[in-house]
Each structure stands twice: as C-alpha cells, then as structure tokens.
Amino acid sequence: MATKAPRNDIDETRLRVSAPESEAVGVPAVLNALKISVEQMGVVRSVQSLVRINQKDGFDCPGCAWPEEDKRHIAEFCENGAKAVADEATLRRIGPDFFAAHSVDELRGHDDWWLGQQGRLTDPMILDEGATHYRPIGWDEALDIIAEELRSLDDPDEAIFYTSGRASNESAFLYQLLVRGLGTNNLPDCSNMCHESSGSALTETLGIGKGTVSIEDIHRADLLIVAGQNPGTNHPRMLSALEKAKHNGATIIAVNPLPEAGLMHFNNPQTPRGVILGGTKLADDFVQIRAGGDQGLFQAIGKHLLEVAADDPEVLDRAFIEMHTSGFEDYAAAVAAVPWAELEAATGLDEQRLRGIAERVRASRATIVCWAMGLTQHKHSVPTLRDVVNVLLLQGNIGREGAGVCPVRGHSNVQGDRTVGIYEKPPVAFLEALDREFDFTAPRAHGYDTVAAIRAMRDGRARFFMGLGGNFVSATPDTAVVEEAMSRVGLSVQVSTKLNRSHVVTGRRAIILPTLGRTDRDRRGGKEQRVTVEDSMGAVHASRGRLAPPKDDLLSETAIIAQRCARVFAGRDGAPRADWGALEADYAQIRGHISRVIPGFEDYEKRVDKGQTFYLPNGPRDARLFRTATGRAMFTANTLEYPRIPEGRLLLQTLRSHDQYNTTIYGKDDRYRGIHNGRRVVLIHPDDIADAGFADGDIVDLVSEWAGPRGVEERRAEAFRLVSYDTPRRNAAAYYPETNVLVPLDSVADVSGTPTSKAVIVRLERRA
Ligand SMILES: Nc1nc2c(c(=O)[nH]1)N[C@H]1C(S)=C(S)[C@@H](COP(=O)(O)OP(=O)(O)OC[C@H]3O[C@@H](n4cnc5c(=O)[nH]c(N)nc54)[C@H](O)[C@@H]3O)O[C@H]1N2
Ligand SMILES: Nc1nc2c(c(=O)[nH]1)N[C@H]1C(S)=C(S)[C@@H](COP(=O)(O)OP(=O)(O)OC[C@H]3O[C@@H](n4cnc5c(=O)[nH]c(N)nc54)[C@H](O)[C@@H]3O)O[C@H]1N2
Ligand SMILES: [Mo]
C-alpha cells in the first residue's frame, strides 16, 4: 500500500498527448477511482468510505453539488467523487515534524499538486513574524492570538472572512454570526468567483437566486440545453440523470466551444447497458459555439421564436406571459432589432444553424437550461443569463414539470452557505431576524466580495484575513497581485483539512487550524454529530462522517467557530447572545436557531431526523410566485455583447482538468482530453498555431493583455505546450489555477463582479 507522499513536483517534460476520447465514464473510470482510493486510504478504508458516500445515513459527497436521486444505488458515487473522498480520507498525515523539516520558503517552491499530496493537517500551527518555519501552538493560545489581533483593529471592516463552499450549514451559520457579531459584513466566498452571475440574473428576473428545477424535472424534460458545462468531469452523476431523461425521450443540446466527452456519450458503470451494450449517446446536437457567444445564441432563439409566433399561435405561452410576466414588449422589440449578422458574429454559427437550434426549442413541450462556469465567468454573464431566462419565459418554461432554470452549482454546499447567510450583501429581512434571535444589531453596510477584499488587502485597508476552508491565494485571479496583497495582512488564519498555497503565502503572521472533513466521525458533547447541506436544487439533507478522524483531538469547523464565539463575545456589550457551549455540544441547537431565522427551515430537526431530503421553498417552482421589482417574472431587454478579440490574439478560457478539484490537483492527467502526465498545456486550433508561426508541441509563454485605466497591462505565464485541438478559431483553453496569474483583478463581470476566468485576451510568445 503506497501511502507515502511524493517527493517531486509535476515533471512537465514527461507530458504526453493522445487523441481525445469521445465518451465518458464506463469501467475505466471505476477502476481509476479504486486505484486512487487504495493508494490514499488502503483497502479497508476505501471500502468503508465508498459504500457510505451519499447514502441516507452516510456522508454527503464532498465533490459536487449535484443532488442524489431518491432511490440510491449501492455505490452512489462517481470517479471524481471517489477522488474527492480519497483526497480527504487519505492516511497520509502532516504534523509538527513535517513543518519542522520544511521551511515555508521551501514549501512555496512546490506546486499545488505536491502541496495537496502531503496529507491531512493534524495540529494547530503558527508562523511567527519573521520566522522561517511554522511551529506548533495550543488551541487556546491560537484562539487567543486571533481574538487579540481582532481587538487591535481600528475598525471591524479591516477584517476579511472568506468561506469556501464545503462548510456545512451549521458551521457557516455560526461563522456569519461571529463575523456580524464582530461588526462587519466582509464575507466574501467562492461563490463570488463561481455562480454569482447566476444569482444576480435570477434574483432580478425570477426573484430567487437559485435554480427552479428538481431532479425529477430533469428526468421529465423534453429538451435539455447544457451550456458552458463539462459534467463528465465536474458533475459526473448528472450524466445518469441525463441518461434517464434520454430514455424518457428527451432531446439534449450541448453548447460548448469544446466537444467534451461527457456531453457526447455516457457509459453508465451501474447498468448493463453502460458496461456491455455501449452506453447512451447523450447530445443530439453539439453546438460548437465561440466562447462568450451564448448571449447571441439565446437572443437568436428568442428572435426566431418571436418571428414564427406571428404565424403560429402555439409557439408562445401567451397565457403565462400575460398573467405572470412583465417587460415582454420591450424584450420582443430588442431582439427583433438585432441583425442576424451580429448574432452570427457572436456565435460563429450561421443564421440557418441558429434557426435550426431554435426550432428544437419551439418543438419542446418542456425545456430546461443547465449551465455552469462557461456562462458565468464572462464580462457579460449577467445579461447572457437574463437572455436565457427570456427564452424560457416565452414558452412558460418556469414553474411547471420538466421545465426551468438549472444553474449547476460547484462546491457541495456552496448553495447552503449562501442560504444560511454567507453573503457580503445580506438582505435586511435576514439581518432583522438574526438581530431578534441573538439580541444584538448586525451591521447593515455591505461588505467586500472576493475581488473587493483583494483590493482592500492590496491597498492596506484590510489587516486580518481568515479562510473557512478553500484556497484563497490559488483560487483568486491575478496571482501576483493576490500574493502581494496577502503579504500585507497582519495575521492570516486558515481553517483547513489539507495543505495548500494559502498556508505558505501568508500575512506577516499566520495560523493553521486543522479541522475535520465531511467524511470524519465527529464526536462532541458525548455523541456523534451530524451536519446538513443543501444541494444544487435546494434540497437539504443530513451528512454524518463515519471514518476515524486523522487525530483524536481534531475539532470540527462548527466546534472551532463556537469556541471562537465564546471567546470573542464573552462579556462584550452588544455582542450576539447564545449559549455557545451548548451549541458546540449539540449541533441540533444550531439548527434550532437556523429554523427560527431562515424561512423554510421549520421543523428542521424533525425533517432531517427522518433521514429525508426536504426541499426549501422556491416561489417560481412551487407557485409561479416571483418576488421581483414588478412582482412578476421579468423579461429584460439586453444589448448584445460578445468578446472582440484583437488581431493576432486569442481568447483564453481557464478550466478544470479531469484530475483536479479546483486548486486541489489529484493527478496529472486529463484523460478525456488526451492529456497525460502534465498540466502546462494550451488547447488551440491548429490553424491558429500555424498563423502564429508555431507548431504543435512548441513550448510558449502566454502573455495576457488587458486594457485597463492605466493603459495596456501585461501578465505572463511561462512555458506552456501547444496542443492542436478541436476548438473554434481563436478560442484557446488552459488549466486553472496555473493560468490565474493571467486574469486581471479588474476584469470582472458587470453587476456580479465575477472574475472573467473564461475570457482572457492573450498572445503567444516564443520562449526567450
Ligand atoms: N471533479 C471536479 N468536480 C468539480 C470541480 C472540480 O474542479 N473537479 N469543481 C466544482 C466547482 S466549484 C464548480 S463551479 C463546477 C465547475 O464545473 P464546470 O463549469 O463544468 O467547470 P469548467 O472546467 O470551468 O468548465 C467550463 C466548461 O464551459 C465551457 N465553456 C467555456 N467558455 C464557454 C463559453 O463561453 N460558452 C459555453 N457555452 N461554454 C464555455 C468549457 O469548454 C468547459 O466545458 O464543478 C464542480 N465540480
Ligand atoms: N482561473 C480560474 N479561477 C477560478 C475558477 C476558474 O474556473 N478559473 N473557478 C472559480 C470557482 S468556480 C471556485 S468555486 C473557486 C474555488 O475556490 P476555493 O473554494 O477557495 O478553492 P478549493 O480549491 O476548492 O479549496 C481547496 C481547499 O479547501 C480545503 N478544504 C477542503 N475540504 C475542506 C473542509 O471540509 N473544511 C475545511 N475547512 N477546509 C476544506 C483544503 O485545505 C483544500 O486545499 O475558484 C475560482 N477560481
Ligand atoms: Mo465553483
């Protein structure tokens, strides 16, 4: 059993490229999952953990936020879920000896793969000012130092509290209470870089910042449009749902610059059909769109539907439009005015092709649009998603069976974290309920989102940083700027399961607080505790870790935060009031508070007790109730936007390989795309390689060009191998986080502020 950590970083000279695959999962995926599990956990623990993933009395998979089906398979997991579990449940450990043996300077020299492979963190550690190494520190002392640092701030708004989407409802709720009790709403989270654009567009047009479909709706849809998403890698269990929909007669349209294997064909390892009979063809139509062209596509669909509606009264759902929507006339006029030539330029598809796609929409009785980062990480993401909503509203595709919007969320509890208050712009009604429940006054002024937080650190306006999970330094854009900004902070604190760059690029002082993960057994107050999470479709359920934790005295996130509340709020005037010790000893009491603060959680404990999943209320889905400015679902008129790529330049999207979870690099392959043993590649059209005077296999630097207020700024990422790939002309792709250094901090989506990680203008440069 190999549970020894690697001694070397990824050796890019061993990189090998083969033809991409055209189908996903199947038996090789299962074998790969088992191999990685056994390497990290050994045989016994592998079996213990893999049978508990997503079972009713087991733990929620720490992978993605795709919901579980009500009837569970014995092994309700996917290859990448198994990798996520193996990464957390690994038997490798790093304690004081490890930190004594490696200076922070040395650790900084390693890549993200190496850092993540070292093992689970087991002891609280501190990096003193000017020190070369972390040293162990007691829990009490660590919490005292944090409390002291917070007291030394001139203003609570000098502190920043980041959250990543793995935190449970219980820990996230306590965390936001701690932060608001301290007097700030500086609660940036990973969502700011992820589905914030979805939240912005959907709240405005439908009155709720979430999707409006259930898993059953997916099964019953007549047409599914999957745009800007790579489910074969990032939401593999979604493929089973798509397969079911297909068997029920659905049509699937995949919209993507890249012909992702998982969108094309699925060999379900849990059915004989998948294993023996060659699986299911998924996409009936692959629309190879230019990156950033989706607004053009959805405007074209709307335009066509409105044109044909003149002769065919059945095309639009007039009754729905009349009764439930506002703004129809303005929208219709706006799309009528957009020339087809513009829509062709935006999408790279001709009018006939666009009308053909629209005809499929016209023919559908019930349509769902699913999307992820390909639609949310552009400058014009919010108008793009408003135009997605427009198309669905035309045919009354909100609030009825098999129809609706389906933003497919990333982190397994990112949606729940937002529901329980992780938000820099909290609604007043939420704050008022919080005030009543805890007898204090929460601050009303909005806080920093992720990008604003980086600016504040960079400009010396923030002096304290804390991360509840995540890897702020590697996940955020403009790596060089972020590293510099982080170094200006007085104290940075990370509550983490695994080592990452945010532990080695730190404030002047730094503290690591190790914590339990989703899979670990959590005994507190003499009993085993469970937590709750919300999936991508607004369904809440319990999760209970079952594996022996890495170290006996390791605290859960919930316990760490409850203890901090006790310490910081003791005897403080105006602080939130609660029995912190009781909350730490019994998480059900935290759920009690949540049930009194947040609508929809009534009888919370009883409902999770039954081992059931319950859906939170969803106005548009449940009752066609739209809490918008007009009290109706809103059609909106949006000016068409799409990226203009200057001569000789490329539009680079930064995406995930098959062997990573965001900044956690599980392995060195991207099997479906034919990349093996390395990550520094750029996928690029062969004619673009030739036009730039290069050949496939050449190693180049990527230089991003950003026209900012101070003129054109350049950023460089060194030594990437060119790989000829099936992508639209002048659209290129490379992996995140290696390319984050190229994404300018100020290049963000309008309205949502999300970094434009899918649209970076770059040129290729010969290596000096
Ligand atoms: N195994 C694994 N699972 C994960 C994650 C992981 O890293 N690993 N991350 C989790 C998280 S936090 C998230 S947010 C999700 C991310 O899930 P995805 O959004 O699927 O992740 P990306 O790799 O960013 O893929 C973006 C997809 O959009 C396409 N795309 C890029 N630009 C455009 C465009 O302009 N238009 C269209 N139509 N398509 C475009 C890309 O070609 C790619 O297929 O996955 C979650 N699940
Ligand atoms: N260029 C570019 N940048 C991007 C994106 C992109 O597509 N392109 N995607 C963006 C998106 S969608 C997202 S969501 C963000 C992700 O941003 P983050 O959520 O900040 O990053 P992760 O890599 O998921 O965080 C991994 C770390 O979380 C810690 N961790 C894991 N599980 C637990 C746990 O249970 N508890 C605690 N306390 N810690 C835990 C481990 O220490 C691990 O190293 O990145 C964004 N950045
Ligand atoms: Mo995400």
From TrEMBL:
Entry GO CC: membrane
InterPro entries of this UniProt entry? Asp_de-COase-like_dom_sf, MopB_CT_YdeP, MoPterin_dinucl-bd_dom, Mopterin_OxRdtase, Mopterin_OxRdtse_a_bac, Prok_molybdopt-oxidoreductase, YdeP_MopB
Kindly state which keywords UniProt assigns to this record, in alphabetical order: 4Fe-4S, Iron, Iron-sulfur, Metal-binding, Molybdenum, Oxidoreductase
| Domain Molybdopterin oxidoreductase: residue ranges | 120-485
Cofactor list: [4Fe-4S] cluster; Mo-bis(molybdopterin guanine dinucleotide)
GO terms of molecular function: 4 iron, 4 sulfur cluster binding; formate dehydrogenase (NAD+) activity; molybdenum ion binding; molybdopterin cofactor binding
Domain Molybdopterin dinucleotide-binding as annotated: residue spans: 650-760
Answer whether the UniProt record assigns the keyword Acetylation to this protein. Answer: no
Pfam families, A to Z: Molybdopterin, Molydop_binding
Which Gene3D superfamilies has this protein been placed in? 2.40.40.20, 3.40.50.740, Dimethylsulfoxide Reductase, domain 2 (3.40.228.10)
Q: Which SUPFAM superfamilies match?
A: ADC-like, Formate dehydrogenase/DMSO reductase, domains 1-3
Name the PANTHER family for this protein: PROTEIN YDEP, RESPIRATORY NITRATE REDUCTASE
Task: Name the chain's protein.
Answer: FdhF/YdeP family oxidoreductase
Give the lineage.
Bacteria, Bacillati, Actinomycetota, Actinomycetes, Micrococcales
